[in-house]
Amino acid sequence: MQKTLSSSLLTLSLNNMEMVVLETEPEVLIEKISNKGNRDTSAAPGLKWCVGLKWFGCVAVSFGLLCILQVILNISLRPPLNYEARTKNLTDERDELKGKLNDFVSGHEAEIKTLTGERDELKRSLDDLKSQQNALIRERDELKRTLNDFDQLLQEGWVYFRSSFYYISSTEKTWQESRDDCLSRGADLMIIDSQEEQDFSRRLSKKMWFGLTDRTQDGTWRWVDGSPLNTSYWFPGEPNNLGEMEDCAEIHSSAEGNNWNDLLCDSQNHWICEKKVAP
């Protein structure tokens, strides 16, 4: 069976297998070969032609796929055509920016130095302020403690006068016992080193031991802190060292300006303690 077509399919059945080939030639011969009965040997040339056509198509398709793969590999593996140019441009841009930065730093170096100096000065000022603040805090805390001490002393019967607290005893003891009592209170027998303090002691109108003695060296009167006696307020004719045994001084109750008297240290007497405080 023969049939002429301008464009058709070629169908080949061989050993129960069919192969369809699209032929685009103007004229094509389509043959049907049957595997039943006796094989027609005159169809062999057509069969060979179809097999050759199949092989050619496979080769063509494979070649096309290889070409496509090659193109893809070339595109993916090939470096950009302008790689070197882009690298050079980036390098030039970097160098230009570095140059501008250097120019900026050089042009503003004096300003930067001035600002740095001002910053350091501000830091030093801040440190000084912190030190002053800490000093004020310590001073405040010290004043609080002092005020608390003052309140305690006032509650215990001490009297405040010109940066000192004074304690006047209500009992009598010897000079040494009196001093020991003052020391136990964190004080000592009174030292009179000004006219104002002398007037204060006279107004108390009481005989009292105070911190003056010549027990260490007879005739040389010293205060309990070891300092020498420079200004004195003795009664007229005193100290007389009666019986060469009067080595301790008392404040005598008198309205007169001078009211000191020397007395036996073992005599019983009231006493006055002095605790100096910061002004």
UniProtKB/TrEMBL annotation:
Coiled coil regions in record: 105-156
GO molecular function, one term: carbohydrate binding
InterPro entries for the chain: C-type_lectin-like, C-type_lectin-like/link_sf, C-type_lectin/snaclec_domain, CD209-like_CTLD, CTDL_fold
CDD domains xref list: CLECT_DC-SIGN_like
One Pfam family recorded for the sequence: Lectin_C
Name of the protein in its database record: CD209 antigen-like protein E
Membrane spanning residue stretches: 46-73
Top-level taxon of origin: Eukaryota
PANTHER family, per database record: MANNOSE, PHOSPHOLIPASE, LECTIN RECEPTOR RELATED
Keyword list, A-Z: Coiled coil, Lectin, Membrane, Transmembrane, Transmembrane helix
Residue ranges of domain C-type lectin in the record: 161-274
UniProt organism field: Salarias fasciatus (Jewelled blenny)
